[in-house]
Design brief:
Helices cover about 80% and strands about 0% of the residues. With about 120 residues, the protein is mainly α.
């Protein structure tokens, strides 16, 4: 199973330390094969589950910008992770703050956003 899929599965099961390890492996894999941008939603989901809501929002902002720029669509699993975490962000923070973080995240490089989300 690819590291990013393992990260997502472990995050969904609440095994956050293991998910973080898998996420860091996925980061290296994504850097090697230029697919890191596809992993940002999973990393943001993990960051949100770890209570790092600001970093989750920044990673989502970058992910949204990448998907828009590339005219790409998320896979269903990543879309669910995105939707669940975005709802948690909107519940935990004022809308203007979420919006500001998403905008700030859109200006980050993919690697910066991934490293923030993974605390790497």
């Amino acid at each position: 199973m690819p590291w990013v899929d393992q990260c997502l599965e472990l995050t969904e099961r609440g095994e956050l330390d293991e998910a973080l390890q898998a996420g860091r492996q996925a980061l290296e894999e994504g850097l090697r094969n230029n697919t890191l941008w596809l992993m940002l939603d999973v990393f943001a989901y993990l960051a949100g589950k770890r209570g790092r809501l600001g970093d989750a929002a920044l990673a989502f902002g970058c992910a949204d910008a990448e998907f828009t720029h590339r005219a790409a669509m998320r896979r269903p699993a990543e879309q669910r992770a995105h939707d669940v975490t975005l709802a948690a962000l909107r519940e935990a923070m004022p809308a203007y703050f979420v919006s500001a973080l998403l905008t700030e995240g859109a200006a980050l490089s993919v690697e910066e956003a991934a490293r923030l989300a993974l605390d790497a």
